[in-house]
Amino acid sequence: MALKKLEQITQKVKERSQKTRENYLERILTHKGKIQRKDLGCANLAHAYASIPDHIKERIKENKDSNFAIVSAYNDMLSAHQPFKNYPDIIKQELFKNHAFGQFAGGTPAMCDGITQGYEGMELSLFSRDVIAMSVAIALSHNVFDGAFYLGVCDKIVPGLLIGALSFGHLPSIFVPSGPMTSGISNDEKSKTRQLFAEGKISRDKLLESEMKSYHDIGTCTFYGTANSNQMMIEFMGLHLPNSAFINPNTPLREALVKEAATHMTRNKIKPIGELISEKNIINAMIGLMATGGSTNHTIHLVAIARAAGIIINWDDFDAISSIIPLLARVYPNGKADVNQFEAAGGLAFVVNELLKEGLLHDDADTIMGQGMQAYIKNPFLIDGKVVYKDGVKTSKEENILRNINNAFSKDGGVKILKGNIGRAVIKISAVKEEHQVIKAPAIVFHSQQEFLTRFQNKELQKDFIAVLPYQGPRASGMPELHKLTPPLGILQDQGFKVALVTDGRMSGASGKVPAAIHMSPEALLDGNIAKIKDGDMLLLDAKNGTLEILIDEKEWQERKASDFKVKEVFGCGRELFAGFRAQSSSAETGAMSFGGYFK
């Protein structure tokens, strides 16, 4: 039954995307070979090769061997991206050994939501994805490359890189990750310390000590937020070497996998990324998201990525996939384990194998391995200096973290869509206990995250309520994450109050135990009904049945006008530079893209 439904969902996406997909493939086919190195003028080529050492210059000017772009999001502000510092040289050296070349084509910006949470810089976060996509286009605009390597890990960076890569869909491409940091203190301990600080029971010094024991080294943060969901998603789309996502940085195996990516590109015929990524790859990414309880941010990013490839998906597709895909993993914030423990328990190889066994994954989707998803049930090992793949475990090493399908944590996925007379929203339920999945309570409307925090600190919120934060969408303020609300809402829930959140903003990829209806669409600034909610309105958030309703007379609701609210003028921290992005952003449900009008 589930297999039949997967086929139906896939067919529906194909039919919906037929025209846009054909147009996209026609565009990249037209560009493929339109301008090649050998066709460029001599002055153009001389500029391109001016910085290359002479012994390489002699070979590359003959145009016989392939030349690959390296696009990196390296900076040492982000722990996950610091390891990329030496990757370009490693890739270039390996390419040269295989009679090919590499050039560092360009860098992309990479910001950290963990640093900007709760501050003005967070309002740049979502649209940094579009800046990254445009940065890729600039890097690849020189028409001298035969393929590309993309180095990135975190929240907006990988979606931005992938959207940019798809705009150069005629080039074969490989994504190269850096891996998670080694485990620090447990995520559970970190969470408890944050809650104690929010309750005023410990000092700031104690909180900082805890945080620095958690975020303590190079590599991705170890919880299962957007960054690690990115890595899962890229593997499920077949753009990584198999099971390379969660190998720690600065290990011999990690360096060997970087070299292997370069070797693999030169020794194998990899399809251009625009042809490789089809409806099946996109749906596989969606399946991985549901099976592992991944980040809600991908209900925005995956929509944008798909549209960049001419594929039209929507939230109903996520909902349909969620209904047939069981939850196989519990990784913080959906459990106590971190991604290193997830990897040790069996990791992505185990998850892919379980899904393939039941026909719940498109095995015939194209991948950079050229053999469908079967390649992704194996794990890499470093044996005698070479990367060797062996079958992954077939039985979970820790059933509190990973389970077989016949013993899944739940029969459906970790993300659901809510619908009703307020609009449509996304909710992550994989960390929400069953007794908190249905909340009926009066609304309290807040005009900012800070207003909520102030009222919480003043002990004005010890009651049952649903917090409503409108005007947090892409058009209003760039759709910042509202993760600062998580600890106080969690405290109120632990105190026995029925609480929830409704907003057209985002929560972190680490959305937790409190029910949160997020990405409300249409957003308030686009005449969304969330702007009409007033203090005291009775709301029903029912995650079990997928509904979100205001419980008033329908005629009164239709006649009610939006409450007075003036969107503030946005200056400071560079936000004024993003005014154009906000003004032309598409809705959250269509990917919140500032250039969304071009992907129809």
Automatic annotation (TrEMBL):
<comment type="similarity">
    <text>Belongs to the IlvD/Edd family.</text>
</comment>
<keyword id="KW-0408">Iron</keyword>
<keyword id="KW-0456">Lyase</keyword>
<comment type="function">
    <text>Catalyzes the dehydration of 6-phospho-D-gluconate to 2-dehydro-3-deoxy-6-phospho-D-gluconate.</text>
</comment>
<dbReference type="Pfam" id="PF24877">
    <property type="entry name" value="ILV_EDD_C"/>
</dbReference>
<dbReference type="GO" id="GO:0019521">
    <property type="term" value="P:D-gluconate metabolic process"/>
</dbReference>
<feature type="domain" description="Dihydroxy-acid/6-phosphogluconate dehydratase C-terminal">
    <location>
        <begin position="401"/>
        <end position="592"/>
    </location>
</feature>
<dbReference type="InterPro" id="IPR042096">
    <property type="entry name" value="Dihydro-acid_dehy_C"/>
</dbReference>
<dbReference type="GO" id="GO:0004456">
    <property type="term" value="F:phosphogluconate dehydratase activity"/>
</dbReference>
<dbReference type="GO" id="GO:0009255">
    <property type="term" value="P:Entner-Doudoroff pathway through 6-phosphogluconate"/>
</dbReference>
<keyword id="KW-0479">Metal-binding</keyword>
<dbReference type="GO" id="GO:0051539">
    <property type="term" value="F:4 iron, 4 sulfur cluster binding"/>
</dbReference>
<dbReference type="Pfam" id="PF00920">
    <property type="entry name" value="ILVD_EDD_N"/>
</dbReference>
<feature type="domain" description="Dihydroxy-acid/6-phosphogluconate dehydratase N-terminal">
    <location>
        <begin position="68"/>
        <end position="374"/>
    </location>
</feature>
<feature type="binding site">
    <location>
        <position position="154"/>
    </location>
    <ligand>
        <name>[4Fe-4S] cluster</name>
    </ligand>
</feature>
<feature type="binding site">
    <location>
        <position position="221"/>
    </location>
    <ligand>
        <name>[4Fe-4S] cluster</name>
    </ligand>
</feature>
<comment type="pathway">
    <text>Carbohydrate metabolism; Entner-Doudoroff pathway.</text>
</comment>
<dbReference type="GO" id="GO:0005829">
    <property type="term" value="C:cytosol"/>
</dbReference>
<protein>
    <recommendedName>
        <fullName>Phosphogluconate dehydratase</fullName>
        <ecNumber>4.2.1.12</ecNumber>
    </recommendedName>
</protein>
<keyword id="KW-0311">Gluconate utilization</keyword>
<dbReference type="GO" id="GO:0046872">
    <property type="term" value="F:metal ion binding"/>
</dbReference>
<dbReference type="InterPro" id="IPR020558">
    <property type="entry name" value="DiOHA_6PGluconate_deHydtase_CS"/>
</dbReference>
<dbReference type="InterPro" id="IPR000581">
    <property type="entry name" value="ILV_EDD_N"/>
</dbReference>
<dbReference type="InterPro" id="IPR004786">
    <property type="entry name" value="6-phosphgluc_deHydtase"/>
</dbReference>
<dbReference type="InterPro" id="IPR037237">
    <property type="entry name" value="IlvD/EDD_N"/>
</dbReference>
<keyword id="KW-0119">Carbohydrate metabolism</keyword>
<dbReference type="InterPro" id="IPR056740">
    <property type="entry name" value="ILV_EDD_C"/>
</dbReference>
<keyword id="KW-0004">4Fe-4S</keyword>
<keyword id="KW-0411">Iron-sulfur</keyword>
